[in-house]
Amino acid sequence: VRSAVATGVAYGIVNFIMTPYPVHPIQIVLDYPVAFGVLGLAGLAAGRQTAWAAVAAVVGAGTLRLGIHVLSGILYFADLAPEGTPVWKYSLAYNSSYMIPEILIASVAMG
User: What pTM was estimated for this model as a whole?
Assistant: First the structure.
């Protein structure tokens, strides 16, 4: 699991280098190394022999990543929310628009 998390962190750093969108140093850490690092936690199901365990691990790790992006959106992208829209709803909707398809595709691939 440790190497999987480290790989996710490394991927997040490379992703930032390739397509940076810096707003604040903490936002960079949340949206890149932390968000991708938590995907390595899916490795906790590595010893399980069922497809359901793998799918559950992917969904769990993907949901954690979604939560980190939502938090980052609430903290650093509040000004993008349409007037009258609660920031948390905007951040959840925006980040879910790409994270839910990613989680579903990864789940199908693992199942």
Answer: 0.94
What are the tokens at 44? 């906790």
pLDDT tens digits for the chain (111 residues)? 999 999 999 999 999 999 999 999 999 999 999 999 999 999 988 888 889 999 999 999 999 999 999 999 999 999 999 999 999 999 999 999 999 999 999 999 988
Domain positions in the chain: 2-110
Cα 9 to Cα 33, 38, 50, 58: the distances in Å are 4, 8, 27, 17
> Which residues have a Cβ under 8 Å from the Cβ of 43 and sit 6 or more positions away?
1, 4, 5, 57
Only one residue has tokens 């930032």, namely 16
**What's the fold here for domain 2-110?**
Arp2/3 complex 21 kDa subunit ARPC3 (1.10.1760)
**Contact status, residue 75 vs residue 95, Cβ threshold 8 Å:** no
